[in-house]
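COMPLEX REQUEST
Ligand: S-adenosylmethionine
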Amino acid sequence: MAPASEGHPEPPRPGAGRYGEALFRPEQPGEGDRIDHAALVYDPFTRQRLRSLGVGPGWRCLEVGAGTGTIARWLAEEAGADEVVALDRDTSRLEPLAGPRLRVHTADLTRIADEPDLGTFDLVHARFVLMHLPERRALVSRLAERLNPGGFLVLSDAADVPDPADPHSAYRQTLNAMWRTLAQTIGTDIAAVRSHPHALRAAGLSGVAAELVCPPLTPGTSLTAFWSETWRRMRPDLLIAGGLEPAALDEALAYLDSAGLAELGPGMLTAWGHRPGRSARRGGVGSGGVRSGGVGSGSRRTGVDPATVQRPFAQAPPVDTSGRSGEDGSKDRPVPPTGVPRCPSRPDAPWSPRCSCPRSRWAAPWWRRRRPVRPRRRSPPPAVRSLLRRTEPPSPSPVRASPHRASSTTASPPRT
Ligand SMILES: C[S@@+](CC[C@H](N)C(=O)[O-])C[C@H]1O[C@@H](n2cnc3c(N)ncnc32)[C@H](O)[C@@H]1O
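STATUS: Structure written out below.
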């Protein structure tokens, strides 16, 4: 099998390899940065979803295909999970993160049935992994079997939302060629992602729900860097397996680098469900009920069914989708963690519903928004006005008095 990015003497054959073999080999320079570009954009959404499901102290979590470990580390260090197992075929980027609460496990997900010692979990999370594995449907069932009663399986994968009015642009041709190439070489199925909710139901999970986030593809963002890097890396495959013209790829790459870039890029579909039954820690397997944390609290278990109280993103504080670490996009600047909502006027400050800045009114969830103040009536109400008309002699002045002056001079209706 010809390596993906080393000159390609031969066209890649359909089904020629797997993720990390035929494409996106982990040892390629810059592969970790490429994964990080996407993580920077999607981590805030993932964290928010996991928090709303209640992840926190007391939870045991499995991060499948953990990549560079951004979510595994967050679960262990910020969400406060008791134990996080970060599983990947290639754990070279995860090893430095290992600690008392973060265990790194090298394994092939497709052979997870051979790993009985892994145990069971309150959360199993897989992001941008299952879409690349042809046996995804069977894997959903196997991952669901790893859940404790009440535990959550959360799956996130890419979802493309093409513009029907733009079937021929270089950008669209390149995206289509990419999905074709991924399907032919490693078995990626972008269409199957939409059926994640059905796969979760078929695996016996309850409270199944799904959502789609499409962060903007605009100049200079991490998302743009991710796609630009992905396409450059896939160039030989896109031209051979994807049948893309070199000129179209060059034009698409130039578009990504241009100031005029404005696209609804591929987004992330997240589907989740929980294993029926009650957490063993809260009263025994199969006794009904669901374990969950409070909405937004992300820590304590309250016994509230999360399926009924999840806070939709539309009502949540704003999420920074730029993936930039600092105002100038520099990764080196110290900034609050990306999961923390920011004040819309001062991105360096955390957002709070009590924030007094004028734009915060729009950042607040609708139920917290201040009602607009209605202007006070200056003229008397109609009933008083008609009474005044009856009791007042007509004005001798030919100039019409302004309603304000009229009301101030005749403000007090005669008492009867
Ligand atoms: C696109 S990256 C996503 C990384 C991470 N989940 C994230 O969202 O940032 C896919 C990851 O899945 C891992 N992976 C792919 N196939 C795998 C398999 N069969 N078993 C275990 N890990 C696998 C890759 O090594 C890589 O780290």
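REMARKS: Residues 113 and 393 are 96 Å apart (CA to CA). The first helix runs from residue 31 to 52.
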